[in-house]
Amino acid sequence: MLIIISLLLATGFLIAFIRATRSGQFDDHYTPSVRMLWDDDEAPEEDKKEDANPEEVLKEGTENDEETQQNNEIITKKKDSE
Asked: How high is the pLDDT of residue 12?
């Protein structure tokens, strides 16, 4: 008897949740309008690379263009001089 009552109660809650979701009760209309006023907590990717460990920069799978090769040579020279 308790199993049947609990299944009916659970079904009722499921139906109420689906009905509330479809009617838009959980939609957030306020946050998108103020999102542009929030500060960005993350630094741009360029700033992150400057703070990165030189060994990590060398290990990254970057493209082999001239600028990357020159940067890698400079980092390697700095590392050798230390």
From this structure: 98
